[in-house]
Amino acid sequence: MGILQRVQYLLETEPSAALEECLISILIAIARHSPTCADAIMKCQRLVQTIINRFTSKEQMEISISKIKSVALLRILARSDKENCLDFVKTGIFQKMIWQLYRYTSFDQWVKSGKEACKLSSALLVEQLRLWKVCVQHGYCVSYFADLFPALCIWLNVPAFGKMIENSVLSEYAAIAKEAYLVLGALTRRLPIFYSHMQQLDRGTTEEAENWCWAHVGPMIDSALEWIRLKKIPLLSRLIEWQNEEKLNGDIQDSAVTPLLWLISSIMDMLSAVLEAVIPEDNAELRHGSLPWLPDFVPKIGLEILKNGLMSFSGLVLASHDNSAGSGSFLECLCYLRKINGRETSIASSSCLQGLLRVAWCVDKLILLANNEPRDLFAKYQSFTREEKTLADGILHSSLPELRTLMTSLVESNGSKWRHMKSIETFGRGGPAPGIGVGWGAPGGGFWSKHILSAQVDARLFIYLLDVFPIVSVKDQFTTEGMNSIIQKINSVMGACLLLGPMDSSAVDKLLDFLFQVPTLKYIDFSIRQFLTLKQGYQALERVYEEEDYLLLSDVLASHFKKRWLSAKQKRKSAAGDEHVCRKNPKKGNILLDTIPEEISTSNLASQEPKCLVAEWAHQRLHLPLHWFLSPLSLLCSTSHETLDFLKVAKGGLFFLLGIELMSTSLPAELRTSVRNVPIVWKLHALSATLLSGMDIFEEENSRDLYKALQDVYGQLLDREEKVDAKKLKFKTDIHENYSTFIDNLVEQFAAVSYGDMIFGRQVGVYLHHFVEDPVRLAAWNALSNACALELLPPLEKCIAATCGYLEPVEDDERMLEAYCKSWVSGALDKAASRGSASFTLALHHLSSFIFQTCSGNMLPLRNKLAKSLLRDYSRKKQHESLFVNLLEYQRPDTRSEMPQHSCNVVNRLQILKEACEGNSSLLSEVEKLSSVIIRKQHVGS
């Protein structure tokens, strides 16, 4: 018997109230885990019906915790699948579970029932309203509004606050009212298109596609506007009239303030949904660029916002100023409240701000669309008041100073709060216990902690402010202060993208739109050119981008990131049919690691109406990993016909990556930006992944220059890490355990198509840097040696990062030293020596330094083994004589100037070779020959 059958059995045995409550809590936890678990509950015979029977069989007027949780369970099941919701509606379960909503109760009766009764009734009504909202979101039960409206009026209208405060039930009332307005917001989103359907409001609706009626909207707006007359609400009126922070801190100590803020937030959500339903989706409904007419409620909402002190007038310069809005504004108060320590108050304040900005933005947009001269709309007024002038000029324009301060605060917040996400991934992307909570047990709380929720609300608020203050504006484009502001905004957008989860894909979509707007790309181009011009050693870009180039970049980058990160994960094909890259040689099979996540090619799913209102965490790519912005380089084309698109994405990615890297360097060193925080190992891997499909990306000179500049920037980062913290480049540990396969394929491409191209060689050569972990360095060297490509590497001075990173410390890994020796003996380094390749310099340095300088103790047997191998090679190949002489005479770069005369060194080294021969007469004779060669060379030189 499974757990669900056991729960059903216990529920059928008339359990106690405490046991019943626990059993339903268990079912709620199971249903919340995943849609699969919710489906299992629905399929369990008689389980749901048993719960419904117990809900209806008890005393009808009695409210218990079990009843409240029963409604919550049905709401979760309805959210998980549209079919479940439809089944509840068709079978009458929905009506049975919300019958209390139909019962009319006067305000006085409800208050007089007592605090405990109000708490229970509030909790039940809240869950029932949430259940109704879920049905409305699925498109069902919209027509129930007409029957439920009379009983809802008590919760929609402004009550007598004195009685509620006296009986301590204000929080309970506010909770019901908030959910009631959230239901209205859901109903508003079922409204038909305003201008196309205003003459068809009386048409019938079907059960499968119910729409709300615009005729119901007017009374709902009137009720909502009563609530935003904040001066009539005792607690909120004090917030508007606040004189100083001490007085405000005293006012918000009341526990009812936060519920009221949530209520105002839900009202703003409903009003903004109404206004958004009026805004045309395209220009088809506009006549000569203007709306045919403007509904009366649009200016009415705007005037009520202004008259009741919700917005500030600090952005206006008017001839006369009255004090009708008090000494402060609700906007200023909310900006302060979001910064105080109380997390829930901060979240509620940010939600209020978001709703208020949405309403103001919609009113401004509709008035602008209605007429090119907004003042004509107010001809019916005898004279223009301050509020009317403000409405004509734009509500948001009236409060620009406060909004600009708020924007600055959010830019700083988003630029730093992304770091909390790093601790959540301590146990991996799914957390230690999937289903319990992402990041469960992480420092500071997991993904569902108030800490993260607060950061997410701020990120959403930041998105709305970007409509008011775009990343790049004309006036701040060419000033130092403006440039700093742009860089900080871009950094903040990057940080906000990391904060948002699967339920916020539309918000991430909008952030990407902002990030890749043409003005932003123009500034990135300006930053790149300025850097390359001012810095020595960099080549300026020759090509000048035109307007169509920026438009193409914008489209390519936005499309790529949305497709890559906002689409659901696809199941991998079988190994036989899996293809990830454009292949030059089909006989070789796949050349990519099919498990490196950045290289998985995905396609957008066909857009379908969602059957589930819950954002499932499985198969999602949000929240984004830290290295998400590297995907244009690491995501490779899957078939040959995608080559052109791949190249466009890769070239755009080079442009974008170089821009954000350079901008991050201009920020203060103590500011840990999300770009800086990505390990250099991921950045170098992304550059390498671009070359796996060949060198097509280098065909355009601009892209070649961008690639080289990016290599140089990453080389500087690598040098900086050497000074701060000599971490290994852990490709095998951080990227993939089979990274050597990636190296083999990269070297194969290098040997096949590069013809010694310096930029390609620099990228391959970075795997020989001493920061690279030993197995990967060994794999890179062996692959180059086997492909006879060691001579194709550029000189060490032209490799990525400083030469000391390749030379120091002296190699002490036995496998690497043996690999150097093997390549030497096999002749793989002959051409490398004549060309001055980095490979020969590395082998010469490490072999000479190990054999003649650093070897001691238990490493002596290895030294002797290497020396013998080199001497035997010398005895068989006289053409290697000059190589061996170089080995004997080699000096480390930091000691060459100190010892111009090194004859004593050579003598000592010859003695070391004699010791390494361990009495072998034939090898000793070779050492004597070498000694003669050295003496003869010295005589010639003198």
From TrEMBL:
Pfam families tied to this protein: TPR_RPAP1 (PF25766)
One GO BP annotation of this record: cell differentiation
All residue ranges annotated as the RPAP1/MINIYO-like TPR repeats domain in the record: 671-854
Origin superkingdom: Eukaryota
GO cellular component entries: nucleus
Signal peptide: none
Protein name listed in UniProt: Transcriptional elongation regulator MINIYO isoform X2
Gene name in the database record: LOC107819869
